[in-house]
Amino acid sequence: MMKFKKLISVLMAGMMIFSLAACGGGGDSDSSGKSGEESKKGDKDYEIVVVPKDASNPWFVRMDTGVKEYAEDMGLNAYQKGTDEIDATKQAQLVQDLIAQGVDAICIVPVDPESIEPVLKQAKDAGIVVVAHEGASLENVDYDIEAFSNAGYGEFIMDNLAKAMGEEGVYTTMVASVTNASHNEWADAGVAYQKEKYPNMTLLEAEPRVESDDNGDTAYNVAKELFKKYPDLKGVMGTSSFDAPGVARAIEELGLTDKAFTTGTGMPADNAELLKSGVVKSLTLWDPAQAGKAMISLAVKLLDKDEITTPLDLGVEGYTDINFREESKTVLEGSAQIIIDADNVDSFGF
């Protein structure tokens, strides 16, 4: 059955690539697109692939650790496969290759949600389960898992920035790119929350949002120019795991420690010295290893034809009491946010 299914998947993928008009969903399929007979396979027969934004980013190296641990613990054929750089076109091509390969499930962290949509539709039309993370705007997925409410996380980051800034002064927001759905949701929520809770803080009107390209050197260079151009700039709300560390380098180099502040998402071990030095007061985080495990856990449930009801327990820390986002039937939100500071940074083990 497996070889037959993979042959069918290859044929379907070829048809979609050369004649999109020939594509169509299986009329008798459920949300995963699998037939009843195929759904009865044992878990070990499933091939589940996690596709990160790229394979070299420390964030996704940590996710790979979780994927490997979960695959071994659960006896699953699950693994992570990423591109050599953050590139939406390369990610789309990788997903198309997996469609042709005939995998059972694709768990993806999208580089550009809008551009990956047509490819994910191809995956679903081929009967492949699609689970996303950091892709709340995606339509061609079975489900998207968020580590938390995106609005809540944006407020969480803003609380940390406001505390560092003494709840007053001019700040701006930094995202990997203006097409990154999650980063912009966090930034939007943070700004809205600031206006409500911290009236003595002001968003930099001239440049309310800047991009880091998910690159520490870019974040550093952009921040350096901002602080030089706007002497009254006091804070930068980062979102990418490269933002706050890059901005902190600029703050330190310009002699602005304890005068300018930044916070955002970051890895503990990579930022231990920055936190201990006081250049960065705190960072926020969810463990990407746990997010990888949660995606696979949900993919298995879908392949097993389990009913997805909430509150949902995926058996993964931070994802044991998951609920649907308000007015959504596909976005599931956990409660996996963490604060990292000088006192606890050495306790995480990664």
Describe this structure in a few short sentences:
The protein has 350 residues and is an alpha/beta fold. The protein has ten helices and 14 strands.
Would you write up a description of this structure?
Helices cover 40% and strands 16% of the residues. The strands form three sheets. It has a seven-stranded mixed beta sheet, sandwiched between helices. The protein contains ten helices and 14 strands. Mean pLDDT is 89; it is low at 1-43. The radius of gyration is 21 Å and the shape is elongated. The protein is of the alpha/beta class and 350 residues long.
Task: Please tally the helical runs, counting DSSP H or I stretches of 4 or more residues.
Answer: 10
Overall outline: elongated
* Portion in helices: 40-55%
Give me the side-by-side strand order of the main sheet.
2-1-3-4-5-13-12
- SSE order, as H and E? HEHEHEHEEHEHEEHEHEHEHEEE
Mean pLDDT: 89
Structure summary, number of beta strands: 14
User: Termini separation (Å)?
Assistant: 41 Å
Structural class: alpha/beta
The stretches of 5 or more residues where confidence is low (pLDDT under 50) are: 1-43
Strand content: 15-25%
Radius of gyration: 21 Å
Q: For the report, how would you describe the main beta sheet?
A: 7 strands, mixed
